[in-house]
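User: Teach me something about this protein's shape.
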Amino acid sequence: MRHRSHGDGSFSLEQLAQCGPDCVFEAGVLVFHPESIELGANVYVGHYAILKGYYKNKMRIGDETWIGQQAFLHSAGGIDIGARVGIGPGVRIITSFHREVGRDVPILSAPIELAPVVIEDDCDLGVGAVVLPGVRIGKGSQIGAGAVVTDDVPPYSVAVGVPAKVQRERPR
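Assistant: First, the predicted structure itself:
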């Protein structure tokens, strides 16, 4: 069986589906399937971050969003990130997984399921947080460093831990 590369991740701004004004891409950023990635205005992408687009869904990143160093966003199932979102260094956002079909089928041979991730406006994801497929993080929520988000987080919540649990509502 022959294997094909997805490319080296180099890109030009013109290849992106959309790139608003004043976006910053630091050294070492890799972008795959740039034609499926839409960025608003004043988006920052930190050193060595990977934006892994996909041929059948979109990655949308809203205005004034900050993506930290070494973040990994994989949008096979689609990613929709609102405006003014902070994504800490080393955050992982994943939108696909292998379906469980039984012990007779190797996990890597099982069908891949896709599920979108939505992160609404004004959220903050702490260093090293992981967001799993199908999750919606409500407006103004804060996710603690190292948290693994497996379920939806209501608006204006603080969620921490593995798996992430809502600890409290943010004050008004």
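Now, about its shape. The chain has one domain: 13-164. Residues 22 and 63 are 10 Å apart (CA to CA). If you'd like, I can walk through any region in more detail.
User: That's plenty for now, thanks!
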